[in-house]
Amino acid sequence: MTKRAFIVSAVAASLLFTAGSAMAQDKFKIGLILPMTGPFASTGKQIEAAARLYMAQNGDTVGGKKVELIAMCQSTAGKFATSRHPATS
Fold first, then answer.
1. What is the largest CA-CA distance in the chain?
2. Which of 50, 15, 57 is nearest to 34 (CA)?
3. What CA–CA distance (Å, rounded) separates 35 from 72?
4. 29 beta partners
5. Scanning 18, 24, 31, 56, which has its CA 20 to 30 A from the CA of 71?
6. Cβ–Cβ < 8 Å for 72, 32
7. Rounded to an integer, what distance in angstroms lies between the CA atom of residue 69 and that of residue 31?
């Protein structure tokens, strides 16, 4: 999977899962689960920097709502999961 395809799928999934709750808020959050440690840490940091640069250059509002970008390391992301999907249990 290319970096671009990964970013597009991550953003699409974030928007899909937060669409209902984002309508009731003044801002919505986009989460990026990236490799921030280990041998691919530089790639994860570059993807996060690219997303933040895009927001800096093009604005951080979409449809009148502020976008909040949250980046998390993929090695620690599982520690914060509250439930598992029934198909993966």
1. 42
2. 50
3. 8
4. 68
5. 24
6. yes
7. 6
The three state secondary structure string of the chain is CCHHHHHHHHHHHHHHHHHHHHCCCCEEEEEEEECCCHHHHHHHHHHHHHHHHHHHHHCCEECCEEEEEEEEEHHHHHHHCCCCCHHHC
| pTM assigned to the model | 0.58
* Angle subtended by helix axes 3-22 and 41-58, to nearest 10: 60
Reading the block at residue 64, the tokens are 């009148």
| Tens digit of each residue's pLDDT (9 = 90 or more) over 28-76 | 888 888 888 888 889 999 999 999 999 999 988 888 899 998 888 887 7
The token pair that represents 31 in the structure block: 């989460």
